């Protein structure tokens, strides 16, 4: 028995020993694995915490970038960038929770100045360097991460503040038919074919919808490759291919970059011309008193200081005259009051017609004055060419000029003011005449018909300003224009808001190669004057104009547009055939109402692009649309707020817009509203060119906005000790 | 019936009372064989356990080292931050030294007290991560075990000058048995006889170029870093490589 037990025991002990050893080894391995697992989990939590901290910091910076007039400013306000600390915390936490951050996690932030000796309690820009630390602390499953970054607020041109987008819409973008978007090289304006990274992006707060014909490449690009990036909050559908690198999400509102304050500032910049020259004051009565009846062949030489040169048929008056009663001077046969032989000239010193007296000059009499004041109306008409040179003119009533009359308010070469207390109507002859003025101030409406060229140093018309009937290719040089009513131009007339006395006024606006920095732009030495129009504006290319094209030049232009339902605020038409466009050179054009363009009209050039800014006022008088149907090209920046923009006139080769188009604050009104606030139809295209956008910043607009940015290279992850 | 059973039991015990020599020898041989097998299995198990533990430890160490390097490199920051309106692009380089075995840079990563009252904004510390001899022998070689170590060092201040042997310089060994020097890298073109610890992506005019030896001018154009760490977990025996790599974009790199 003893031996049996001994044998069984040895095997059992051996087995137990082996089993125990194996168990110990297994347990050790399990412990090692558990340790590793724990370490991995801990590491994952720590990394996740870092990612959340980065997200929170990005969100904090994004919040800080949204600048509104009510937003505290970095420089002085301890509550920047939120109205209160609790608001900031709750905003950050809510954003994180929405992104999956556990609700039991914590987020905190601090803002403090970047002083040499840090003091977190100094929550404003004490050292006045425009920079402060924005710090976020995240606690995620026991892991604490602190990150911070220097943020700065700088005042920059609004163009700089905008995203680098070819099209930007708060809502959808619809590319219909064969319309497309692409980018051009800034260096030479040729199609961009280098692929990612793209020089620009189409950005939509909604979705981008195509029609199956879009490849996001220029029509003459070789190779045909995608030339712009895509970033939408919704979806991308219907393009003719699957675009590379589509980014979903992150498109903010345009007002994040271009806030209401900046919008108002840009509108103000466009309204530079709202401040116009004051009306000349009525001159005081002066001179030798004379009755109007004295102006007859029988009595005229009884007027003191008068003389007559029979050889030149000229009456000369050496005294200033103060005339009582309305005066008429006309050519004709006989010796009645005011009747003189054809070709008679009257050379006055100053001529003052007191009370409501009027002055009427008819047919072949010529008058010159050193100054003219008419209490009532001034009427000049002639069937033959006459030239009247008045010096400064003050007419209390209407002014009517008809026939081949050359009118000027000039002393020597110095232009003088011309004032009418009523309306001014100038009806020219078939052949061109040129009227010259200093300040042309019309208290009523100004209407110019036929081939009359106007030259002035400034023009103010409190009523409408109408140009029509010209067929001789008239170019008006008017200086700054202020129109209280509507401006409607038709016939073969071009308008420049340049002062005709300045040398650049002779630059041919059709020859864009002669344009220099001195001729346009806010930094120009003698820039074109501003234009302010209180109602609507239309420049219509005459259908019978043949090869003639208008070439307008304006400085800052504002068109209010409020003139009753049915009238668009801005309406340009151009030729519907031929390749030569009409041109509009303008630094900044802005309106609050509907805009339409049609025919072949170019706006700006590559070298001198412009800005079109529509800030719809939602007054219900018009549909809130910008219907850009021009078959020409707009060079520059289009910004449309609270309205839709439809670009329809493209031919597939020449882009409708070279630059960028921005649409913000979607307009949705009942059933008439649209969720596609930018729509391209037909073969319309928009081409992005960074060089053009840069020139918009340099030459077109000066409006600035407060921009909050991260100081490059300042991001830090800090110790949590 | 009980008497019959008892008689049979007595007969069986009598037949088992003797063990022959042959039986004993056979038993000893069997026991020897079994014991030998058990010992062999035991040794094998012990070796496997030791190897597995060593490998896991090496892998964990390598992973920790890689993680640390990633965090440090990601936080690289230029010493000077641009000033001006509008904001100019940063021109200062993130790295003061960048080659295949070493990366030197400024960082505030885990610098304590940087945001405390009086901590100052000078939180940046010159930091370096390098493979080689702590005494500064570079490049490392396979001949010295001291040059198979991966070190992290940080100066106590942001001073540009000064030696890494100064007092106050913090030193940490991130990994040992790093064998990048002796392992060919076939993942790059042209193939190298070594596997660079650091490779750098520089971007100039939109063109991304990878190199393990950026020029001085390119230090400011580094936008990404690939870190590859190869540790021999079974040094002095058949090599067992733990090969880990990651690519990171420094948060403060230009364009990020």
Tell me what the structure shows.
The complex is a heterodimer of chains A (721) and B (256). Chain A has 721 residues and is of the alpha/beta class. Chain A contains 6 helices and 59 strands. In chain A, the strands form 9 sheets. Chain A has a 21-stranded parallel beta sheet that branches. Chain A has an 18-stranded parallel beta sheet, with no helix packed on it. In chain A, strands 1, 2, 3, 58 and 59 form a 5-stranded antiparallel beta sheet that branches. The longest helix of chain A is centred in the first third of the chain and has 64 residues, at 2-65. Chain A is elongated. Chain A starts with a helix and ends with a strand. By secondary structure, chain B is α+β, with helices and mostly antiparallel strands. Chain B has a 5-stranded antiparallel beta sheet, with helices on one face. Chain B has a 4-stranded antiparallel beta sheet with strand order 7-6-8-9. Chain B starts with a helix and ends in an 8-residue tail after the last strand. Classes of the chains: A alpha/beta (721), B alpha+beta (256). At the A-B interface, helix 1, strand 3 and strand 59 of A face helix 2 of B.
């Amino acid at each position: 028995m003893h031996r049996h037990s001994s044998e069984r025991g040895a095997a059992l002990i051996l087995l137990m020993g082996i089993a125990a050893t194996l168990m110990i080894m297994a347990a050790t391995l399990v412990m090692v694995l558990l340790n590793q697992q724990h370490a991995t989990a801990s590491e994952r939590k720590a990394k996740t915490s870092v990612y959340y901290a980065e997200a929170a910091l990005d969100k904090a910076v994004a919040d800080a970038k949204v600048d509104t007039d009510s937003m505290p400013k970095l420089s002085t306000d301890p509550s920047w960038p939120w109205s209160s600390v609790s608001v900031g915390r709750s905003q950050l936490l809510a954003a994180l929770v929405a992104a999956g951050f556990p609700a039991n996690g914590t987020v905190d932030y601090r803002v403090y100045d970047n002083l040499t000796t840090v003091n977190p309690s100094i929550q404003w820009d004490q050292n006045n360097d425009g920079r402060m630390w924005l710090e976020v602390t995240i606690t995620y499953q026991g892991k604490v991460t602190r990150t911070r970054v220097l943020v700065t607020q700088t005042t920059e041109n609004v163009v700089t503040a905008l995203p680098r987008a070819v099209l930007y819409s708060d809502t959808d973008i619809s590319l219909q038919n064969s319309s497309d978007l692409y980018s051009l090289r800034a260096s030479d304006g040729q199609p961009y074919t280098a692929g990612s990274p793209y020089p620009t992006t189409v950005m939509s707060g909604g979705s981008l919808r195509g029609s199956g014909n879009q490849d996001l490449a220029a029509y003459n690009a070789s190779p045909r490759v995608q030339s712009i990036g895509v970033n939408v909050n919704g979806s991308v559908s219907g393009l003719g291919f699957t675009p590379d690198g589509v980014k979903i999400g992150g498109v903010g509102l345009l007002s994040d970059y271009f806030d209401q304050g900046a919008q108002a500032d840009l509108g103000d910049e466009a309204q530079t011309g709202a401040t116009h020259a004051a009306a000349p004051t009525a001159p005081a009565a002066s001179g030798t008193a004379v009755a109007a009846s004295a102006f007859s062949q029988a009595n005229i030489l009884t007027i003191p200081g008068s003389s007559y040169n029979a050889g030149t048929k000229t009456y000369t008056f050496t005294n200033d005259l103060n005339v009582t009663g309305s005066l008429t001077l006309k050519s004709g046969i006989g010796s009645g009051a005011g009747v003189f032989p054809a070709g008679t000239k009257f050379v006055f010193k100053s001529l003052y017609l007191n009370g409501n007296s009027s002055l009427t000059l008819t047919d072949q009499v010529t008058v010159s004055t050193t100054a003219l004041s008419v209490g009532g109306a001034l009427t000049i008409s002639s069937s033959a060419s006459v030239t009247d040179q008045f010096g400064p003119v003050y007419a209390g009533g209407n002014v009517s000029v008809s026939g081949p009359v050359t009118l000027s308010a000039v002393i020597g070469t110095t232009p003088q003011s011309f004032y009418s207390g009523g309306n001014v109507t100038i009806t020219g002859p078939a052949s061109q005449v040129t009227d010259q003025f200093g300040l042309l101030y019309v208290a009523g409406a100004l209407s110019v018909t036929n081939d009359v060229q106007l030259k002035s140093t400034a023009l103010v018309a409190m009523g409408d300003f109408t140009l029509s009937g010209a067929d001789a290719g008239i170019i008006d040089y008017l200086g700054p224009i202020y129109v209280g009513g509507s401006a409607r131009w038709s016939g073969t007339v071009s308008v420049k808001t340049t002062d005709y006395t300045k040398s650049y006024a002779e630059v041919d606006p059709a020859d864009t190669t002669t344009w220099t920095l001195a001729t346009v732009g806010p930094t120009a030495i003698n820039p074109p004057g501003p234009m302010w129009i209180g109602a609507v504006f239309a420049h219509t290319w005459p259908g019978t104009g043949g090869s003639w094209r208008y070439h307008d030049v304006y400085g800052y232009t504002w068109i209010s547009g409020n003139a009753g339902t049915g009238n668009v605020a801005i309406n340009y038409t151009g030729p519907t055939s031929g390749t030569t466009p009409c041109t509009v050179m303008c630094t900044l054009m802005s309106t609050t109402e509907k805009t339409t363009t049609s025919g072949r009209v170019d706006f700006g050039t590559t070298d001198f692009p412009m800005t079109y800014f529509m800030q719809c006022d939602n007054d219900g008088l018009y549909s809130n649309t910008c219907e850009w149907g021009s078959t020409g090209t707009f060079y520059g920046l289009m910004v449309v707020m609270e309205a839709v923009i439809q670009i329809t006139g493209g031919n597939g080769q020449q882009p409708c817009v070279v630059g960028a188009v921005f649409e913000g604050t979607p307009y949705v009104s009942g059933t008439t509203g649209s969720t596609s606030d930018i729509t391209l139809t037909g073969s319309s295209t928009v081409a992005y060119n960074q060089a053009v956008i840069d020139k918009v910043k340099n030459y077109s607009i000066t409006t600035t906005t407060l921009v909050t940015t991260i100081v490059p290279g300042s991001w830090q992850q800090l110790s949590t000790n | 019936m009980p008497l019959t059973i008892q008689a049979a039991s007595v007969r069986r015990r009598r037949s088992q009372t003797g063990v022959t020599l042959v039986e004993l020898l056979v038993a000893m041989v069997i026991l020897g064989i079994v014991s030998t097998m058990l010992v062999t299995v035991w040794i094998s198990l012990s070796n496997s356990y030791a190897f597995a533990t060593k490998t896991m430890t090496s892998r964990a160490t390598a992973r920790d080292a890689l993680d640390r390097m990633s965090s440090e490199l990601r936080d690289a920051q230029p010493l000077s931050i641009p000033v001006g309106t509008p904001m100019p692009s940063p021109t200062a380089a993130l790295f003061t030294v960048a080659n295949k075995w070493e990366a030197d840079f400024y960082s505030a990563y885990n610098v304590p007290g940087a945001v405390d009252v009086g901590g100052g904004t000078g939180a940046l510390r010159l930091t370096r991560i390098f493979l080689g001899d702590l005494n500064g022998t570079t490049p490392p070689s396979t001949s010295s075990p001291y040059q198979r170590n991966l070190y992290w060092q940080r100066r106590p201040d942001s001073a540009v000058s000064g030696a890494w042997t100064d007092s106050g310089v913090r030193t940490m060994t991130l990994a040992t048995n790093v064998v990048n020097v002796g392992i060919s890298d076939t993942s790059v073109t042209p193939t190298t006889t070594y596997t660079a610890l650091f490779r750098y992506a520089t971007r100039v005019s939109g063109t991304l170029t990878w190199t393990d030896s950026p020029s001085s001018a390119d230090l400011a154009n580094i936008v990404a870093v690939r870190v590859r760490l190869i540790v021999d977990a079974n040094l002095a025996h058949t090599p067992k490589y733990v090969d880990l790599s990651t690519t990171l974009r420094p948060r403060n790199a230009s364009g990020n």
